[in-house]
Description:
mainly alpha, 2 strands
Amino acid sequence: MRRIVTIGIVIASAVAQPANASTCQDEADGLRALLVDEARRAKRWNIGWGAAYAAAVAGQLALALTETKPFGTFDQDYKELLYVGVAKAAIGVGSKVILPLKIAVPSQNADPCADLVALRKAAAKAARVERNSFYLNHFGGLAVNLTGSAVLAVRRNGMTAVSSFAIGFPIGLLATYTQPRGTWHHWRKQRARWRTGVALTDDGGASLWFAGEL
């Protein structure tokens, strides 16, 4: 009976596993292309938003130091609004320098199936990186803007605090929703694909295993 069960398991595993070099190569090529594209997009996103926040720091600081208000009269409310804006933009620059979005692409393996295993692991890691960055930008941006508004509410008035939040929070959302999320979306579609395999036991039998991510 043990032999029959073992044979049945091996057959089931062979049917379930798309174990041929051609199939592995096709999926590996697609995953590698996805990761390479996401890595490039992440680099452009980091540089673009880092530069935008740096420009915001320079522009607001220049207005504050020269006591210039393009529309209206320069006053203390506007001055402190600018300095809070400088602080928030500086945090934005720091986030792109200290915690940039990075997508790693593994070196290519001559064995297409081994290459596919490495690429799946890299895709799963990239998906987690994109997901964590997306939520961190959401909550981090909200926290930074609420803190800036609270400071202005205490030091100046409610209107200045609301103005600061109304300017800063939408910009943070724009940065968040322009972040690359292709690998995350791809992995969410693929993670429920189950795989099977056979492991030999010490007593000469075999066991069937299932693997997947929910």
